[in-house]
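Troubleshooting log. The previous run stalled partway through. Resubmitting the same two chains, unchanged.
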Amino acid sequence: MRSLNLSILATTIILSTVSSPVEAMDIGLSLETGIIGTNGSGWSMVGGPGIDTVGFGASFGLNDNLVGISSINLGVKGAKNYLTDPESPGDAEGFIANLAVAQLSAGVRYDLLPESQWIPFAAARGEVTLGSMRLDDDLQHEDNINQIEQSAMSAGGSLGIGVAWQGTVSPLNSTLRVELEGGFGVASALSLGDLGDLNVAGPRTRASVGLLF
Amino acid sequence: MTNSIITKIGLVGLGLTALTGCDPWGNLRVDTYNYMEQGLWDKEVVATSAGMYVRLPAAGALVWVTPDGSSRTVDLHGAETTRLVAAPDGETLLVFGSYPTCDTDDADIVTVEDCLNFDPDKLVLESMVYVVKNGDMIASSPIAAHYNALAFTSDGSHAVAYLDFSKAADIDFNGLLNLTEVVFIDLQSAATTSVPVGFAADRILFSSDDEKAVVLSESKVVVVDLTSTNYDILVQYALSLDVDDEVRPQDAELTPDGQHCILTVEGSSDLYVLDLENESINIVDLDGAPAALGVESVGDKTALVYQYEAQVDLIEHDYFSVESILLDEPSNNIAVGDGFALLYNVSNSNYHDVYRLETTNSDLIEYRMENPVESLQIAPDGAHAVAVTRPESASSDPLEAYADERYGIEVLDLVSDRGSHISLVSNSQPLGVAFSKDSVYALVLLDGLDDLLKINLTTGNAESLDLVDTPMSLGAFGEDGFFITHDSALGLVSFFDPATDTFTSVGGFATGGLFDDERMLVQNTEED
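Second attempt completed without errors. Output:
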């Protein structure tokens, strides 16, 4: 109970450094984290569905409601794959599949109540996802012949809705904006050549914290 | 334009590499573990004169791997392979497989998953046999799925598909199974012809001119004319006059002139001699049920050995008279060379003897191995043989005990009249033995050793050659080369050139279709 009270106190102090009402700003910079949803059984070899990402974004106001947005997010995930059939070559060591992605997006956001502190919004983005797959079946040897790398690109778009909280940060003469967003993306598969395709269409979630200047 | 895009993707790939660290291969992130039921590639590879075929069970594909370091998928029009068999011509591969179709006109159903969701009963797997040469499918034909074995004519022009009951677990069929037919396959066109030959045919022999096939089934032997368009039956032999008396052939060979078929019967001391030209059967009474037979062409005689009798019978091919020669120990296996037969015992017993029986003069030369024989191979020139021996109970003598507890390689001098041989003790189980074409040396792989041993057959000296990874198997490749498969999940084989002692390793071929999770249906057309 004591720690809960301290948390409430700390939150109150932080929020007291910013104040309402909010003013429309032209340019914003933010730090982001999110999940690129995926689908297909092939993802089990890379650590399951969804790619956790971190990145940063930028925005610029077009008018009171409409904002241009762009971002770059990076994510890495992988899995150690074991072969359960003892007759399979490499059953003892298996192989690692590791995927690094960079997702570039640009689009527009519509803020429903731009003058309020809590702002519902909708966003539409075009997305380009770049992926680099690495496979390795012998980590003990740096020069293993089976270090396989394949790059791929996917293009698509996403729609999302969310809610933002905004408050002025007095010392910086700027506005703090915190966002939570969920949506769905449709995109072409990451085509990894002979390795096959990984589908990056699926749910999108994103959280960000940034400043509006 | 395409190159430009690829270049840009590559640059971004490099950028991502930089983002994930200076040494991305040394720090690959692992979030979780995944367990796959199927291996990415089948270690039972098939080598032909120009390359190697490898099945990818998980992806359902077949890849063609060549010594220039390249590999590519063989286009089998959507079929998933189940079995590969190389023809004796060194070029042709027969592939058993099946492709999925969906019994519906709905154009929206294009994948196996679509069909399963629509109606699982509509999904049909069409069994096929494909003829593949140099990595390309050249012909295909439907075939019943249950055939699991093939026999080839020596010229590779025909094959016969039959059901090998010793691999009964592999039998795949729906509904009814016809066990009275075998299928003749023309390897030029892949055209198949079913021929009724009797119940449970499981042994096929071919005449030396490849014009006749002798098909052995239960209580029946059928001779088929391979020169006729419909594979006409020339003659049938009943091995029993009583339908209640089942006579199951165990081992069979044709005499060098192709006139007679000599066959042994399970559990019987009767040796059947079928005259294929004069349509008669002669039954030779033996001292017991033979364990193995071998036909030798220089002496024109057949050797027979017995599981428990320390005796070899030598039968000439004019009157089929039997000459019995006593041995010190029973032999249950025969390897035939030019002018001789090697007799050895691979039962789980304590027998150490190998005998060389000269078929022209019936001379018997005894070789005494350090340990019991596990397998034996004769070099191409017939001057040497290599026996792999297995551990046995240790002797009280320390020196003998050292050898007793270990595997061994024994090089037999087949020119010697004194049974001379070289014994090499191995610290692990030999995985494979192969000979150079000139028979100067043998190549040996040992379990757990990342080296290839090159043993001089005359001196017994072994040279060790470093391998790129842990080996699994060794085989002959091309004119005078070898291949080695390695214990590597993503696929790794090495081609060995003995002229230069160099290896060319090809890896990563098992990754084809690794991430594909949709299997496309194949549309049946007239052309298919």
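Takeaways: The two ends of chain B are 36 Å apart (CA to CA). The helical segments of chain B are 2-19, 112-118, 398-404.
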